[in-house]
Write a structure and sequence with these properties.
The protein is of the alpha/beta class. About 50% of the residues lie in helices and about 15% in strands. It has helices spanning about 20-30, 45-55, 70-85, 105-135, 155-175, 195-200, 215-230, 240-250, 250-260, and strands at about 10-15, 35-40, 60-65, 85-90, 140-145, 180-185, 235. Bound molecules: NADP nicotinamide-adenine-dinucleotide phosphate.
Amino acid sequence: MALPAPKPNTTVAITGASSGIGAQMAQILAAKGYSLTLIARRTDRLNALADELKAAHGVAIEVISADLADSSARATLSSRLSTGPTLIGLINNAGFGSFGPVSEADQDMERGMIEVNIAAVHDLTLRLLPGMIERGEGAILNTASTAGAQPMPNMSTYAATKAFVTSFSEGLSAELSGSGVSCTALCPGPVRTEFSEVAGSVGLEDSMPGIAVVEASEVARQAIEGMLKGSRMVIPGFANRLTAVAGRMAPRSLVLPIAAKFTSR
Ligand SMILES: NC(=O)c1ccc[n+]([C@@H]2O[C@H](COP(=O)([O-])OP(=O)(O)OC[C@H]3O[C@@H](n4cnc5c(N)ncnc54)[C@H](OP(=O)(O)O)[C@@H]3O)[C@@H](O)[C@H]2O)c1
């Protein structure tokens, strides 16, 4: 029902471990004695983090370079994860956003976002979950967002991808009841990482109410705590828990103009 204790020849895989929330989750898990498989495209960053964690905590760290937008790279990654150390945790954290009207968007970037934020989460879960169920233990954590609680003008594709991740993860969490495997949806509000730079809107977090911004290290701490307990959902920060409820419950006619205010820069 939750992330098992670390044992020899086991690993927790983290996608998007080269920066931000993923790198912070790696720090926390390594400090708790978990061996890790770090996945992203920037292997220089992953190798530097792996060296740091091995030296500090004496855990085994494997680095895998993979572009999660590429379905064949996902298949190769999944077979490596199925044949290496026993996978006791899968953290589908890699993701990115874009900013601006869909009509003016970089179309390749928008399509890539669907691949990384949705298809990779779905694909890795489909391929790796059966092994966990067979072993009767394991934990999946999928990084969604409070952006998935309601549509967001100027971040329309991103918010829709995160609505998928939230819904998929919550449904799976219920399906897995009694299986020994858990699924947790992590729904952060604004976090200062490289996210806004990648989205082409540096300082995006600063246009959000300051009370909603939570540090990446704290988001990661609450995420791992939730994964250890097998929680269905983790929303770091009181203000974000409120806005997530409001975003889901309030009429769209009210929510859309408010959301547009925060994303009209
Ligand atoms: N920051 C926020 O305000 C916020 C709020 C809510 C949710 N989130 C979510 O939190 C997660 C982590 O984001 P972050 O804030 O930590 O941003 P970040 O610092 O930009 O980290 C994004 C991570 O995703 C990886 N990634 C992106 N595209 C990839 C690809 N094609 N293949 C493999 N890896 C890829 C990046 O690695 P490489 O570039 O090295 O491949 C990087 O490690 C994302 O799912 C994001 O949507 C962020």
